[in-house]
Design brief:
six-stranded mixed beta sheet; binds flavin-adenine dinucleotide; FAD/NAD(P)-binding domain
């Protein structure tokens, strides 16, 4: 047992562990998967914030303002800290490439290596399943991979959703935090994800980024029952949540010939359609030049979770960061990596302070007393 215990060696857990070690603690790091990095290792590596705090508030209006303010105000300094640890930026132009956001694009494998070098040993293949006797940081990545919880909180179509994330984030942090007395945040029904080519297309984890169909704003979006949806969010987070609630979590994106050359970020619509086709999607090319791509909702991260204070505390002796904390992006979309970085550092620091005070988690129903 270390001075502090970290559950999860993804973005939040690794950052918390690196911070704890920098403060002189010896973190015991438990990781359920067979490799470190969690979903962060599969991500695009863009760690960002809204350019103006007012835009963050306006878009994610259901979130807890103090947490949002922390992420917004601390991110730039925390990005410098990451680079000082040796995390490399990705090749290509600086910045996020998105006019709505400010931040940096990191190379995910390099980010994992730099963080692992700063944390010390990781107990791979060892999930944390019980509350430990030392201060705990929960960084288990939310509950996107738990079909029952997704059905209970998000959509009756849970079994049809594609999982666009690591398979290990099954709500362990939510369960352990709740056992210690933590409360749930707002927005348990919300998630971030992307429309992906529907089966028979095959979507391997290495293609989660490349196969995202990110052109709903240029398409006619129809559900299996004939309903239509017009996306309103620049991030298209709204349309994927709509698709998730359609029969089979499916929809169809139809674009006219004039839209195929339109660029969304680094790719054209035609390139995204071609990627879907190459993956095996049943793309229809109509005689008039229109193209229809059958898509399915892919869930990446849950946005609801534990309710944390500004020190990352969710219960006595228990702190949380990353997707285990809800109430940051509620109502819209903000960077999960940014929240994991900022709250991860805060939670790591708070856990070390708790260890120095001799604080430890306890099941909420246990009678208070010396431990
Ligand atoms: C394809 C893709 C693209 C993305 N692109 C971006 C992007 O560009 N920008 C951005 O901001 N976000 C992006 N994200 C989201 C981002 O990766 C997540 O928001 C971020 O990784 C959350 O950090 P986390 O630590 O909460 O979860 P993770 O990084 O997933 O780490 C959680 C870890 O906890 C482990 N775990 C689970 N249960 C236990 C347990 N009981 N005990 C021990 N370990 C446990 C898991 O195995 C995992 O390693 C993307 C995600 C994906 C999949």
């Amino acid at each position: 047992m270390g001075d502090v215990v970290i559950a999860g060696a993804g973005m939040a857990g690794l950052v918390a562990a690196a911070q704890a070690r920098a403060l002189g603690a010896e973190p015991a790091i438990y990781e359920k998967g067979d490799r470190p990095g969690g979903s962060m290792a599969l991500s695009s590596g863009v760690i960002w914030r809204h350019r103006r705090f007012a835009d963050f508030r306006a878009e994610c209006h259901g979130g807890q303002e103090p947490l949002q303010r922390l992420v917004h105000e601390r991110l730039d300094a925390d990005l410098d800290w990451l680079q000082e640890l040796g995390a490399p930026l990705a090749a290509g132009p600086p910045g996020t490439g998105n006019p709505h956001t400010a931040g940096r694009r990191f190379d995910p494998p390099g980010l994992v290596s730099a963080l692992c070098a700063a944390t010390g040993p990781i107990r791979l293949g060892q999930p944390l399943t019980e509350l430990p006797a030392a201060p705990l940081v929960l960084g288990t990545g939310g509950f996107a991979a738990n079909r029952d919880l997704v059905r209970a909180h998000i959509t009756a179509q849970a079994e049809h959703l594609l999982l666009r994330a690591s398979p290990w984030s099954t709500g362990d942090g939510l369960r352990l935090g709740t056992r210690a007395g933590a409360e749930r945040s707002a927005g348990m029904h919300e998630f971030y994800g992307r429309a992906l080519p529907a089966p028979p297309a095959r979507v391997a984890p290495a293609q989660f980024v490349a196969l995202a169909q990110l052109y709903a704003r240029h398409a006619e979006v129809t559900g299996p029952a004939g309903g239509r949806y017009r996306t309103r969010a620049w991030s298209e987070i709204d349309v994927v949540q709509w698709i998730a609630r359609q029969p089979g979590a499916r929809a169809r994106y139809t674009v006219g010939p004039g839209q195929l050359g339109v660029r969304v970020g680094e790719r054209t619509v035609a390139e995204m359609v071609a990627a879907a086709e190459a993956a095996g999607a049943a793309v229809e090319r109509h005689p008039d030049g229109r193209v229809t791509v059958p898509v399915a909702a892919g869930i990446t991260t849950t946005l609801g979770g534990l309710r944390a204070g500004p020190d990352g505390r969710v219960a006595p002796g228990v702190f949380a960061a990353g997707n285990d904390v809800g109430g940051i992006a509620t109502g819209g979309y903000s960077s999960g990596l940014a929240a994991a970085l900022v709250l991860g550092r805060i939670a790591g620091r708070s856990a070390v302070q708790a260890a120095r005070r001799g604080e430890a988690p306890a099941p909420a129903s246990a009678s208070p007393g010396p431990r």
